[in-house]
Amino acid sequence: xxxxxxxxxxxxxxxxxxxxxxxxxxxxxxxxxxxxxxxxxxxxxxxxxxxxxxxxxxxxxxxxxxxxxxxxxxxxxxxxxxxxxxxxxxxxxxxxxxxxxxxxxxxxxxxxxxxxxxxxxxxxxxxxxxxxxxxxxxxxxxxxxxxxxxxxxxxxxxxxxxxxxxxxxxxxxxxxxxxxxxxxxxxxxxxxxxxxxxxxxxxxxxxxxxxxxxxxxxxxxxxxxxxxxxxxxxxxxxxxxxxxxxxxxxxxxxxxxxxxxxxxxxxxxxxxxxxxxxxxxxxxxxxxxxxxxxxxxxxxxxxxxxxxxxxxxxxxxxxxxxxxxxxxxxxxxxxxxxxxxxxxxxxxxxxxxxxxxxxxxxxxxxxxxxxxxxxxxxxxxxxx
Length: 384
Known about the structure:
Blueprint: E1 3-9, E2 15-18, E3 24-30, E4 33-42, E5 55-61, E6 68-74, E7 77-82, E8 89-96, E9 117-121, H1 122-134, E10 155-157, E11 166-170, H2 176-189, E12 194-200, E13 206-212, E14 229-231, E15 237-245, E16 252-256, E17 266-269, H3 272-278, E18 287-291, H4 299-312, E19 316-323, E20 340-345, E21 348-361, E22 367-378
Parallel strand pairs: 10-13, 14-20, 16-18
Antiparallel strand pairs: 1-2, 1-5, 3-4, 3-21, 4-8, 5-6, 7-8, 9-11, 12-13, 15-19, 16-17, 19-22, 20-21, 21-22
Helix pairs in contact: 1-2
């Protein structure tokens, strides 16, 4: 039997209770984004346990697996109401998971400074943003002289690794979470998948971390270890969907730099894959213009922006499916959040990340797990 416990703590880590006899609860976690939790309890739930940023630790130990913390929720609302199905009064509370901690601040520095204009590996740039806006020793003070960073004992950032794609970006006064999401996506679009998370590191203690290529374990067919393969035949793949999508494809992008009229710097991007794609059809030369005037006459800069536009509009093969927790493929034992796994459908094999999961339990103590595989590959030719 899978064991669960939800530990309730104060904002600074003091344990208040291990919650028992809940009506139902649900936790969702998402790679490179904040998740969410909700808990419904009886009307007799102690109201002294309700409060802003009460911490909810969700622990799970599957049969044959280790006891691990799936995530930490931060209480941000609570409400009492009568259930429509039976008229019973209950209390419901919920909020985001720990990733929301890096959405609470902005990049609070002037433009054209070392804190807002950065060049380097994407993972290190992300960590610099976190350190300069959340880590106590390096985040500085606000306009009233108060520390911007979280307490040093409660929040830290992993050391630099220099593993992401190298890039240059400017980002004054923006919220931190969408900024680091864009940096991670830029790295991925250039061939270096980049993941981040705020990892529980003790009661009310968290560490910001990054990973390249895979957040968890590579369990794909080609990884050289015992793989996990999801398929209809194995009974562990639900609701598969396979789409070949050429609707927004581009094959030729004109990059426009500085200058006006006939003296404007133009650098076209039209790689060998695009040329091959054009041969699919006599109608398949598809053009666009990318404004890159901020590059002035820097042709490598213009080319990079045009190339990125071309990459964003490649023909796609999209596979989606639900990963099922089964005796032969146990969540938390054989595969987990952030792992890279293989799926097989209609004669195609796909490798993708377990990018999200939702785990819930109802008042009958029945556990339900919903995990999604969402794979986007690029079509180099039409399927035959």
